[in-house]
Write a structure and sequence with these properties.
The structure is a homodimer. By secondary structure, chain A is of the alpha/beta class. Chain A folds into three domains: 21-52 and 190-257, FAD/NAD(P)-binding domain (3-Layer(bba) Sandwich); 71-186, FAD/NAD(P)-binding domain; 271-392, FAD/NAD(P)-binding domain. The first copy, chain A, is 25% helix and 27% strand. In chain A, the strands form seven sheets. Chain A has a five-stranded parallel β-sheet with strand order 6-13-7-8-9. The first copy, chain A, has a five-stranded antiparallel β-sheet with strand order 18-19-22-21-20, with helices on both faces. In chain A, strands 1-2-3 form a three-stranded antiparallel β-sheet. In chain A, helix 3 links the parallel strand 7 (94-98) and strand 8 (117-122). The interface between A and B is large, with 56 and 56 residues.
Chain lengths: 393, 393
């Protein structure tokens, strides 16, 4: 994470970064924003072009007990420091993590490495609903192997902070105890200001922007986790708040405001995370998303070796690949393995940008050397099998 | 390496594999091959379709001394076993490797791991002439760090096997001594039979084939290291004898002979090798190859981090990227790093198959997580800088 102070912005870039200033209203007719400064005094600032980069904020349940000091969210660097400080006291023996997404998984690993007992809970039944079942089973085994307890179908109703450790109750009255509760149940876009200003919203209440990052008001831009993007596979708006997209959008706004030509292709939904020794990666659509988007998807899941079979140190690598039976297009890929999944996922990601068919992708001249994979890369094994299946169905 | 016996072919696949039969002539007018069987008796076999899969053979210099038993080539499994057996005796303290290609590098590593002193020699001045100079310098440092001595400009004139250790002389009379000499100076296609049968030859005397693997005689196919392929960037014939291409061509011949539709896209020149702790990868064209093929190339070389800067264990990763100033197309990419180079190269490889521009590639939604790379993947950093350079020039 990169942290720069307001002072640095002023000195290095002549940018007047007004910290402590809360914008409360966008007056798009007058071309100005109004709000409260650090001393409680009202301020107003005129603009020719406005950029909304309000990000996203963690979703914190409204149920009783979430305001307890032993309940923490993980969004800012300060949040992380606060958790670290708490762990350093040695008072945290057990932690309960709400959520089973990327951040939740990374927290589980970080806590287990510090020998804290970890339980993870979520209301839904699936561990990672977007991941193919066979691949998700591998992730579950990895969590099991590291003594992370998983409670799916556990819908938190309230936290009783009167006890020590805290008692976390689900809607059925079952309870789990923990010294620390970490809320990692996702984020929502900070779009209230934009909404109040009458700007069009996109998926999940994110701010709708065009390929030049302009909102429905062409002098107002939005970029980062608050804004949406076009999905290169569906062509439809999508809200996938990840770092590269946010960063790229910021640069693109600056370019466009400065008169450069900008037209963002959009996102492929590429993501990767590490959980203990596993790499979990995805790009493009799942079977469910593909059906939802109107495709006629077929999918295969294969398991092969991360290295040439004769090479010492080879471990299993799983690939799930989705294609469209009507157009032949590659729609998505998921991978789980101990090595070679995180960076391999970029090949199908590029193929999605190029709208390649599975057949075209299957002919890719991918790299081979015994320490790095079998002669037929796991991605090619999956593509070949998917091709066969798409022809049969 | 996969080894199957003739017996297994007979039993499992009903394929009559006639080992010990040397084909000496293709009589394409009569549709038959003739030669000598194991007992020295002549044989003749008729064909409807013929596949030439004669592979490639190591180039062994004709200078005096190369027939000495302490001079070894590395092509077959037997060659490797023979070297291993020799090493096991403990009599090999020093080895001299002729050549500095993939095989030579892998041999250098294998020998150093067994604590044999290693010197590598080649006549030309460049360590890896196809690799950008900055990236090649990193490889040289890695070899230095592992006490591999490099003698470029050393053109072997003869080996004096009368001495123990052997004395290897260059054309200037300088000599190096070694207990074992390993010849890894590349391979040449076994195309003499095809040539004698009047079949068209391609680059480096390989057998020219079309996208269905047919030679200039449409009932005769050629596949594997003996045959050429089309290069997806130049559209021209290329001879790049690597395992995936050879394997894919074999399957394609079988498909085509059986009446399936086949049209191979060709090769992107993707390759990777490991030398000690370094991964060295390439795809597409070098600056020199791009100029040669009629492009107007520009290139950048960048160095960035293999992980997010805050992440422990990050190491440098270098990317060299080549684009065409006229069309904007991505032409090639090279990478060197301790992690993340081998599999990352597949993303630009796919982009080459899709004939993407550098601008399109620069917009790819590549995976990001701190353990696996910076927010802007090294490939994107290179693409962004190359884009800038292509616009300026």
């Amino acid at each position: 994470m990169v942290v720069r102070t307001a002072e640095a912005f002023r000195k290095k870039s002549s940018i007047d970064a007004l910290t402590g200033h809360r914008v409360e209203r966008i007056d798009s007719a007058a071309g100005r924003v109004t709000g409260q400064g650090p001393d409680g005094k009202a301020f107003a600032l005129a603009y020719d072009r406005l950029l909304i980069a309000t990000g996203a904020e963690p979703i914190v349940p409204r149920q009783p007990g979430f305001d307890h000091p032993q309940v923490a969210v993980v969004k800012t660097l300060e949040d992380a420091h606060a958790i670290k400080t708490r762990l350093a006291t040695g008072a945290v023996k057990t932690a309960l993590i709400m959520g089973m997404g990327y951040i939740a998984m990374e927290m589980a690993e970080a806590l287990r490495l510090r020998e804290v007992s970890v339980a993870m809970v979520k209301p839904r039944a699936e561990l990672l609903p977007w991941l193919d079942l066979d691949l998700a089973a591998t992730v579950r085994r990895e969590l099991d192997a590291h003594q992370v307890q998983l409670y799916t179908g556990f819908d938190v109703a309230r936290i009783d902070g009167g006890q020590r450790p805290l008692a976390v109750y689900d809607t059925n009255g079952t309870s789990l105890s923990a010294d620390l509760v970490i809320v990692a149940t996702g984020v929502r876009p900070n779009s209230a200001l934009a909404d109040a200003a009458g700007l069009q919203l996109g998926p999940a209440q994110s701010i709708a922007v065009d390929r030049q990052l302009r909102t429905s008001n062409p002098v107002i831009y939005a970029a980062g986790d608050c804004a949406d993007a076009f999905h290169v596979v569906t062509g439809q708006r999508a809200w996938i708040p990840l770092a590269l997209r946010a960063n790229r959008a910021g640069w693109a706004v600056a370019d466009h405001v400065c008169g450069k030509e900008v037209s963002l292709q959009g996102v492929a939904g590429t993501a990767v995370f590490k959980v203990f020794d596993l790499q979990v990666a995805r790009t493009g659509l799942t079977m469910a998303e593909a059906t939802q988007a109107g495709f006629a998807p077929a999918a295969v899941t294969i398991s092969t070796s991360s290295r040439a079979h004769s090479h010492p140190g080879a471990t299993p690598i799983q690939v799930h690949m989705v294609g469209d039976k009507r157009s032949g297009r590659l729609l998505g890929t998921q991978m789980v393995g101990r090595e070679g999944a995180a960076h391999r996922i970029n090949a199908p990601a590029v193929a999605l940008h190029a709208a390649m068919t599975v057949e075209q992708f299957s002919q890719s001249d991918l790299a081979y050397a015994p320490p790095f994979g079998p002669t037929w890369d796991p991605l090619l094994v999956a593509a070949n099998q998917l091709l066969k299946k798409m022809k049969e169905e």
